[in-house]
Specification:
alpha+beta, 2 domains, 4-stranded antiparallel beta sheet, two-stranded antiparallel sheet, 63% helix, elongated, disordered N terminus
Length: 269
C-alpha cells in the first residue's frame, strides 16, 4: 500500500510537472519579463526578501528600455573582458559564448544573474541550460541562500554574491541598495544584522535537499576560513597600531624628560 501510494504520488507529480511545462510552452514569457518572473518565483521558494534577487538581476544584467523607461534584466546577456553584450535571442548569446571560448576567453558571465562559467563550471549541464532563465535564476538563488546561511545577513550575502574583496563588495552593496530601494521593497527591515539567534525572514528548505549543495557547503567552509583569516589579520593590524602608538608616546615622553632635565641643569648653573 505504501509503495502504491508512492508510485501514484510520483505519477501525479509527473503529470502536474508536464502540465506546467506545457502551459509555459503554450504561453511563452517575453524575454523582457523572463528574469523578473523567475526571480520573483525563486524569492518565494527560497525565502529571500522581496525584490532582493530581482534587484541583483537588474544590477547584473540590466539594460535600459526606452519604451518602458526602466532598466530591465535581460536573459541573453553575456559579459566578458569588461564588456557587456545584449543579444536579441538565446541562440545568438550561446553562439557568442562559444566564440569567446574558442578565442581562449574563460572568464564569462551569462544570463539573468550573470553566473560566471569559470568559477561555477558545474552550475549547468550545457549553455542552453545556462541561458534558461529558470535554471540561471534558480542557481543564483541557491548560491545567495548559501551565502546568507554562512553570514546570517542578507545584504552581506548579496555583497558577497559579487565579491568578497571588501572594497568591491562595499561598492556593489551601495549600488544594489539604491536599486532595491527603488523597487519599493522594505529593505530597511533586513538592512541591519539580525539579533543573535533570530532570523528576519523565513528560510527555504535546507540546502542539503537542493541539487549542488555539496559545492555550497564547500564554499561555506571556504568563506568561514577566509573570514577567520581576515579577523586574525585585522587583530594583527590593530595590535601593531597600538604598539606603534605606545612606542611613539614613549619616545615623546623620553624627549620631554631629556629636555626637562637639560632645562633644570641650565637653571642650576
Amino acid at each position: 500500500m505504501i509503495i502504491g501510494r508512492a508510485i501514484w504520488g510520483t505519477a501525479a507529480f509527473t503529470v502536474i510537472l508536464l502540465a506546467a511545462v506545457a502551459a509555459r510552452a503554450v504561453v511563452p514569457v517575453h524575454p523582457e519579463a523572463a528574469c523578473a518572473a523567475e526571480t520573483s518565483s525563486s524569492e518565494r521558494l527560497y525565502g529571500i526578501p522581496a525584490a532582493l534577487l530581482h534587484s541583483i538581476s537588474i544590477v547584473e544584467s540590466g539594460r535600459y528600455n526606452s519604451d518602458r523607461r526602466a532598466v530591465i534584466a535581460w536573459p541573453w546577456t553575456v559579459m566578458a573582458e569588461g564588456k557587456g553584450r545584449y543579444f536579441p535571442t538565446k541562440a545568438e548569446a550561446i553562439a557568442e559564448v562559444r566564440k569567446l571560448k574558442a578565442e581562449g576567453v574563460r572568464n564569462i558571465d551569462v544570463g539573468c544573474m550573470q553566473i560566471n562559467l569559470r568559477y561555477h563550471p558545474d552550475a549547468f549541464a550545457n549553455l542552453d541550460m545556462a541561458f534558461d532563465p529558470a535554471a540561471n535564476v534558480a542557481y543564483a538563488a541557491r548560491f545567495l541562500k548559501g551565502l546568507f546561511d554562512a553570514t546570517g545577513h542578507w545584504l552581506t550575502a548579496a555583497s558577497y554574491y559579487h565579491s568578497q574583496t571588501p572594497n568591491l563588495a562595499a561598492a556593489y552593496r551601495e549600488r544594489l541598495v539604491k536599486v532595491w530601494n527603488g523597487t519599493g521593497s522594505a529593505a530597511t527591515q533586513v538592512a541591519s544584522a539580525p539579533p543573535r539567534g533570530i532570523r528576519p525572514v523565513p528560510h527555504a528548505p535546507a540546502l542539503t535537499a537542493v541539487p549542488g549543495s555539496p559545492r555550497v557547503e564547500e564554499a561555506r567552509r571556504a568563506w568561514r576560513e577566509q573570514a577567520a583569516l581576515e579577523r586574525q589579520e585585522a587583530s594583527r593590524i590593530a595590535a601593531a597600531y597600538r604598539t606603534a602608538r605606545v612606542a611613539e608616546y614613549q619616545l615623546r615622553r623620553a624627549r620631554f624628560m631629556d629636555a626637562r632635565a637639560g632645562l633644570s641643569a641650565a637653571t642650576r648653573q
